[in-house]
Design goal:
seven-stranded mixed sheet; about 220 residues; globular; two-stranded antiparallel ribbon; alpha/beta
Length: about 220
């Protein structure tokens, strides 16, 4: 079985310029996830698909490849990058890794791959997530809010609540490549999850995220 890892890196970003290459505690952001993925015992080869010349890493398992102009625009979807990649590189499963989450660890990747592969008749796709234990409210057009996941008239204690909810943390996704090419979506079929620690809910999208993440990484 052939398992590849793919890290899309685009040099441009809207809210935080060149966020993938920003120094976070004296190390470029993209190197956090890349270094952990390279240590995976299940990923046969890791690819960084980029339109930048700032990727300065060398490893026997790592290949830095160019992404097309079409898949490098601000409007291009990650699915476009994946499809472009799979047309050139054949594998059975792909681990899509997003460099904006520096809390990724090798053990999470390997345990998640093992979970999906060993249950491949039950699940088609896996995503990384953080368990949600918060009471969620949604706003309507009149600026009123209403509860989405609990009854405030019978408010439970947080520790007694039985919320079976998870939030995507954007760290990684694992899927069968044949099914992806059929569905054109990283998420399809029966979807399962791999739970990561609470702090991993933060990924770098703006300056506030970056400030919080730096504090967490210093601990």
């Amino acid at each position: 079985m052939k398992i590849y890892g793919l890290i899309p890196l685009r040099k441009g970003s809207i809210r935080l310029k060149n966020k993938n290459f920003l120094k976070v505690l004296n190390k470029p952001l993209y190197k956090y996830a890349t270094n952990e993925a390279l240590k995976s015992k299940f990923i046969n080869k890791l690819f960084i698909s980029t339109d930048s010349n700032k990727v300065k890493m060398k490893h026997k398992k790592l290949s830095v490849i160019s992404r097309s102009k079409a898949s490098s625009t601000r409007y291009a979807s990650t699915e476009m990058v994946i499809e472009e990649f799979l047309k050139k590189y054949k594998c059975d499963y792909l681990v899509l890794i997003q460099a904006t989450n520096p809390f990724l660890k090798t053990q999470y990747i390997d345990k998640a791959i093992k979970k999906l592969i060993s249950n491949n008749r039950k699940f088609d796709t896996l995503l990384s997530a953080v368990k949600n234990q918060h009471f969620i409210w949604k706003k309507n057009r009149n600026d009123c809010i209403f509860p989405k996941n609990y009854n405030f008239k019978k408010r439970p204690r947080t520790q007694d609540s039985k919320l079976e909810e998870y939030s995507e943390n954007g760290a990684f996704y694992i899927f069968n490549t044949i099914a992806f090419l059929k569905n054109k979506n990283r998420l399809h079929g029966n979807i399962t999850y791999f739970e990561m620690p609470k702090e991993s809910i933060f990924e770098v999208d703006d300056k506030e995220d970056l400030r919080i993440i730096k504090k967490l990484l210093r601990k």
